[in-house]
Write a structure and sequence with these properties.
The complex is a heterodimer of chains A (about 130) and B (about 375).
Chain A: H1 5-10, H2 23-37, E1 41-42, E2 47-48, E3 55-61, E4 64-69, H3 79-92, E5 98-103, H4 130-133
Parallel strand pairs in A: 4-5
Antiparallel strand pairs in A: 1-2, 3-4
Chain B: H1 4-32, H2 48-69, H3 76-89, H4 93-117, H5 121-141, H6 146-168, H7 176-195, H8 200-221, H9 224-227, H10 232-258, H11 265-295, H12 306-324, H13 328-359
Helix pairs in contact in B: 1-2, 1-3, 2-3, 2-4, 2-6, 3-4, 4-5, 5-6, 6-7, 6-11, 7-8, 8-10, 10-11, 11-12, 12-13
Classes of the chains: A alpha+beta (about 130), B mainly alpha (about 375).
Chain lengths: ~130, ~375
């Protein structure tokens, strides 16, 4: 998915082009993305989607940042909400020129994927908007 | 970018349609109670039940499921229920019935598809809810009296909610044995709805025992017991859930004593315990999650929302007291209060959204 062209032009001078990132920078990019995704709260459980174990993969391939995520169940009504928040995060990052957000339903999410010691509903739902995160 | 804006508009439109189903349902309910309102659709309040079940709940629940799947065919379900609502209001029974059937069938397909992706207990229970709606609507179209089919209409939102709560409460890690017990009670509860067609009183007695069991299970294992100590929407939602479970126990006790009569005061009390005390309590609990999920619109928290919640339960107590002690005024004022509580809740949601857009504030 191509980013907003205006934002790209605006940040053209100080932005590193993804294609010339070295391995360390790619690692840093992934760490940054994951850190930002921790601001997205699943409104049904009040836990961020990273600690909840919903992010399956985050990687860079041929200048495109791929983010593979899941939801707690195929009938989960907050799926669109989460996807939009993820897109907003990736769109807000200057280091990412193109991205692809993909929902997968296999393997099934389970409570065993939740980070140990997570406190549920530490963030009352839903208090964040796309603008807050970006 | 995905077609979020188009879907937002479609879902917004369908939500408004469900809201219209609710408003017309409440309006016809008041006419049914004998309030001197213009009978705009010449239905004499007869469509109050079908409107609340299909026009409102089925539209809303099928929209929620359809939005989760994001398959174009899945939107046929809420659209069909919306269309059926209009046709029923206009008195077009046959085409209205066709769209009721179509919507119910597509909803069954949606839940079967979900079960196919993830064949687990909570999805099967939610699927049971959709099948219950289809059963109820088939009987309705066949002109079976409402009191004969009402069990299936009750089962639709209840099974949907039971499945959702079981799914969400996985985080509480209930023991496998407890989950199996829950499934057994649910099967018994569904089985009792079939028995009702052969032995009405014994059927509802079995139903009552299972219902009380389900309520106690939910109180024991629902995360709401913990989140009641939280704040804002989370605390509010927990309060709605626990009071809803409390009403299930009341319904169970009343069913044990009286069964479900074919009409009359106890019949009125029981139906409204199910639909107001439990279902609307659940709707109040989930509104702050469902709205942003469907439309991307955030509902900022405000303590005001406790007002409609207390009115909802307070006036339901009044209404049920009126039904049990044959005090007509209590029953009538209780139902006015319930309508007011629901309208105040909807008004509060709309007001908070408008206020936040005007002031630019995202939350309290």
């Amino acid at each position: 998915m191509a980013k907003n062209p205006d934002a790209c032009i605006r940040n053209n001078f100080n932005r590193k082009i993804v294609s010339v990132l070295n391995n360390i920078e790619v690692h840093e990019l992934r760490v940054n993305v994951i850190a930002k995704l921790k601001n997205i709260i699943d409104p049904e459980l009040g836990v961020n989607i990273v600690d909840l174990g919903l992010i399956y993969q985050a990687y860079l391939k041929e200048d495109v940042f791929h983010l593979v995520y899941t939801v707690t169940t195929p009938g989960c009504p907050v799926r669109r909400y989460i996807e939009r928040q993820i897109e907003a995060v990736l769109n807000s990052m200057d280091e990412i020129r193109k991205f692809n957000v993909e929902l997968v339903l296999k393997p099934d999410w389970s409570v065993n994927m939740i980070k140990e010691g997570v406190e549920f509903f530490s963030v009352p739902p839903p208090v964040m908007t796309v603008e807050d995160i970006s | 970018m995905k077609n979020h804006k188009i879907l937002d508009k479609l879902f917004g439109f369908l939500l408004i349609t469900a809201g219209m189903g609710l408003l017309f349902g409440l309006y016809t309910g008041l006419i049914y109670l004998g309030v001197s309102l213009p009978d705009l659709f010449d239905t004499a309040g007869a469509v109050h039940g079908p409107l609340m079940i299909n026009g409102f709940l089925a539209t809303l629940i099928s929209l929620e499921r359809g939005a989760a799947l994001e398959k174009n065919w899945s939107y046929i379900a809420p659209l069909s229920f919306a269309l059926a609502t209009v046709l029923l209001l206009m008195g077009s029974g046959v085409p209205g019935g066709f769209f009721l059937l179509l919507g119910s069938l597509i909803l069954v397909l949606i839940v079967c598809y979900i079960c196919h992706i993830q064949p687990v207990v909570y999805n099967f229970i939610m699927a049971g809810g959709a099948v219950a709606l289809l059963t109820g609507n088939v009987l309705f179209i066949l002109n079976v009296p409402i009191h004969e089919l009402i069990g299936w209409w009750i089962a639709f939102p209840l099974l949907t909610i039971f499945g959702e709560r079981l799914e969400l409460n996985r985080i509480m890690r209930p023991p496998k044995k407890a989950q199996n017990i829950f499934l057994m009670i649910i099967i018994l509860w569904i089985g009792s709805l079939v028995i009702v067609h052969f032995g009405r009183f014994i059927g509802w007695q079995i139903n009552a025992v299972a219902l009380i069991g389900i309520a106690f299970w939910l109180i024991r294992y629902d995360v709401a017991r913990h989140t009641i100590k939280s704040e804002k929407w989370t605390r509010y939602s927990a309060l709605c859930l626990l009071t809803g479970y409390g009403w299930l126990i009341v319904a169970g006790i009343m069913l044990l004593i009286y069964g479900l009569p074919a009409a009359g005061f106890v019949y009125d009390a029981l139906l409204h315990i199910f639909f107001i005390g439990f279902v609307f309590s659940m709707i109040f609990a989930h509104a702050a999650v469902i709205l942003p999920a469907l439309t991307g619109i955030i509902v900022p928290w405000n303590r005001y929302f406790y007002l409609p919640l207390f009115l909802l339960h307070g006036f339901l107590i009044l209404r049920v007291s009126g039904d049990l002690f044959y005090i007509l005024d209590f029953r009538v004022w209780g139902s006015y209060g319930n309508v007011a509580a629901i309208l105040l809740f909807i008004g509060g949601i709309a007001g908070q959204i408008m206020l936040s857009k005007r002031t630019g504030s995202k939350h309290e």
